[in-house]
Amino acid sequence: MQRIIASTLREVSFYGAVAFFVVLTAFPFYWMLITSLKSNPDLYNVTNIPFWFNEAPTLEHFRYLFEDTLFARWLLNSLVIGVCVVAITLVTALPAGYSLARMTGRSGEALGIGVFLTYLVPPTLLFLPLSRIVASLGLQNSMWSLVLVYPTFTIPFCTWLLMGFFKSFPREIEEAAIVDGCSLFGAFIKMVIPLSLPAILTTVIFTFTLTLQEFVYALTFISSSAQKPVTLGVATDLVRGDIFFWGEIMAGALIASIPVAIAYNFFLDRFISGITGGAVK
After folding, report:
1. Per-residue pLDDT tens for 63-72?
2. Where is the ABC transmembrane type-1 domain (predicted)?
3. C-alpha to C-alpha distance for 104 and 111, rounded to whole angstroms
4. Residues 6+ apart with CB under 8 A from 216
């Protein structure tokens, strides 16, 4: 009897904890959804209960986003910036992480830590010198300035992440490929990269997420609405003076966050294996 009670309590505690974290995680999406579908009288009436609809839901906020603002352009800008930064990061971080992982002695680990420490430097200290570089290249008020600047924090982090994964990668696979006639670079291209897809996918998701959520550099380098990414456009063009367009802000946040959430859930298994791949060493 005591075992049954103890087992029941463990199950109740486990599922209770899971339910708590599910509600905690899902609540922001629920709040964005219900706020974006509320009419303005329902949204701004302080006597209404905010957790459900007191009046009929409406798509007016979504219509306003796509017809009266440059929201579609902001989404496209964020996509272009993200794809370009992901490509630059992969081309740089893959060989860098592999080289650091294969360096003998403590020099590789020390260099890896040094690379990662550059990621920890806050943007509030770097945007001044970077703004000088952007001005010198004539990229002021252009989304291409972000393509230039964002790799300064995505490459260090992804290099450190890939270095941990490559350290756990068996050297015997590369040696076998070299014995079969591949060069070291050929073994890296034909053997290491195909077997490192979980780590590469993790790098892609992290890089795209970092570029999507960045705000300080975008606010510093871009003022034209047509050049803004979605995070900057929603936060600036939908706040006018002391007026917050909460319905449109929540609708924009919901649309921008759903693709990232789907990507994380769709590739969850590979994502976890990519993060923990370097922990086996």
Report:
1. 999 988 899 9
2. 75-267
3. 12
4. 123, 124, 127
